[in-house]
Amino acid sequence: GAVVSQHPSRVICKSGTSVKIECRSLDFQATTMFWYRQFPKKSLMLMATSNEGSKATYEQGVEKDKFLINHASLTLSTLTVTSAHPEDSSFYICSARDGTSGSYEQYFGPGTRLTVT
Amino acid sequence: DAKTTQPNSMESNEEEPVHLPCNHSTISGTDYIHWYRQLPSQGPEYVIHGLTSNVNNRMASLAIAEDRKSSTLILHRATLRDAAVYYCILRGSSNTGKLIFGQGTTLQVKP
Question: In this predicted model, what pLDDT tens digit does every residue of B72-94 receive, in sequence order?
Fold first, then answer.
């Protein structure tokens, strides 16, 4: 099946700094990518939908100025957590949809564990 | 978004079939039923999806009730590697294709 990678797999940063997480589709073109966050023992929460070449669509309650999303190419979307605080510590997961296949199947990345100290 | 209801947890013995139920009584006529699973500390993995007819693939089978208000994911022979959280999700026919995850069912497989 299609492969989606995330980098880094885990990151520790200090409070007040910004962290960028990359999501790449390795063998297909992803016109749409999605960003989720997941707290321990909880389900995934959709944060935003990222469309190539246009602004991301954020879910209600997600601050767009805090979670900057850029989808500049058909294989790369980035999530930047700005001015991170300990409460932003979470498991961030991206997914991508193959826009050329007509399928709505989403392929998920392995996740990035962010710890803010 | 139409909601789904799943049991919080289920147990199974290794090499026995597992039937994971999902209720979606408010499903609309154009909603697809998707199943994903998530192993610990990993991203979710696609399992199967369907609209009206039962579906089979190498991983599982999906049985959809005639009124579409419920469905059942069937693992024919559970293995220890099938221990995961299984999510039943309804996806609307809009072009975004976004998935809204519920709480899922944690499946424990006992040797």
Answer: 999 999 999 999 999 999 988 77
